[in-house]
Design a protein that fits this description.
Layout (H helix, E strand, L loop, with lengths): L16 E4 L2 E4 L14 E4 L11 H9 E8 L6 H5 L4 E5 L3 E6 L10 E6 L3 E7 L13 E2 L2 E2 L3 H13 L7 E4 L7 E10 L2 E8 L5 E11 L9 E6 L2 E7 L5 E6 L10 E8 L6 E11 L2
Antiparallel strand pairs: 1-2, 1-13, 3-12, 4-8, 4-11, 5-6, 6-7, 7-8, 9-10, 12-19, 13-18, 14-17, 14-19, 15-16, 15-18
């Protein structure tokens, strides 16, 4: 299929261009895409109202939290009820609790951290040293899309226990206060072979993080099979000889995903069968 560029008009500002199987999509000035690609999701990053005031709680989150999902449920929270949701308690005061919440079907190192304040605030997050790509739960991938991410699952576990609905939850990255968007670009492959997408980051775009998640599911133990995650033909990560699903994470340097250059991101494997393989590139950036 030949690449075709979409003409979007002079009033649209092209921020980021990604192609998938020869089709381009453009981020417009309002942040929406003209067409969708497999697994592409974009979310605004908005600081919570409580973070605008300096308190011990906000200082704690600013020191510890990275990518976060937060909501105010509009009612006081019984901390004794909230406490029952946690796998472990990390910090507890008369006003709030911080701990980790287990996610169904995932190991303890996938737990999300959760801050709950008696005034109604709930924040699920990963630590500042953990990449944004950690929010991708490959067990939540279905029908060519990421149905939920791990922060959403953790938040829902807490609000369900409290008998509250999640309405108007927002994302924020406490380490990148100037970032106003984050994007997940996901490519998957079922069976043997290779799939890829291309991405070009304009020079004008301020990118605060480039991270990745690589997933392999081949469970054949009688032979060592390998899944590769590559950029421009260079191996960024490989997963070999696994006997159960494996997810590995990391960050990319500017040189590996440099601006103003079209890069090809691919995932491949040589394991037979109908196992799932995937790669996600996550970007945190400031859109003018």
């Amino acid at each position: 299929m030949k690449d075709k560029k979409m003409k979007l008009g002079v009033l649209l500002v092209t921020i980021l261009v990604i192609s998938f199987l020869g089709a381009y999509f453009y981020l417009q000035s309002d942040g929406e895409s003209s067409i969708s690609a497999e697994g592409r999701q974009t979310f605004p990053l908005v600081g919570p109202a409580f973070a605008q005031s300096s308190t011990s709680e906000t200082a704690f989150l600013e020191e510890e939290a990275g990518i976060s999902l937060y909501v105010n449920i509009g009612q006081p929270i019984d901390l004794a009820v909230a406490k029952t949701v946690y796998r472990t308690i990390e910090k507890e005061t008369a006003d709030y609790i911080v701990g980790s919440i287990a996610l169904p079907g995932l190991s303890e190192n996938e737990d999300v951290h959760c801050f709950v304040n008696k005034d109604g605030w709930i924040v699920t997050y990963y630590l500042k040293e953990e990449p944004i790509s950690k929010i991708v739960g490959w067990n939540l991938w279905s029908g060519g899309t990421l149905t939920k991410n791990k922060l959403q699952v953790g938040l829902e576990r807490m609000t369900n226990a409290l008998g509250a609905l999640v309405i108007d939850a927002k994302y924020y990255h406490f380490q990148y206060p100037n970032a106003n968007k984050y994007m997940l670009i996901i490519e998957t492959l079922v069976g043997q072979g290779e799939d890829s997408f291309t991405i070009t980051i304009p020079l004008e775009l301020a990118v605060y993080e480039r991270s990745w998640s690589h997933y392999a599911q081949c469970t054949a133990s009688y032979y060592v099979y390998t899944s590769y995650f590559k950029i421009d033909g260079s191996t960024i990560n490989s997963i070999s000889g696994v006997t159960s699903p494996v997810t590995q994470l990391g960050t990319l340097t500017v040189a590996q995903l440099s601006p103003d250059v079209e890069h090809t991101v691919s995932v491949s494997n040589n394991c037979p069968g109908t196992f799932l393989y995937g790669v996600c590139v996550a970007l945190a950036y400031q859109e003018p």
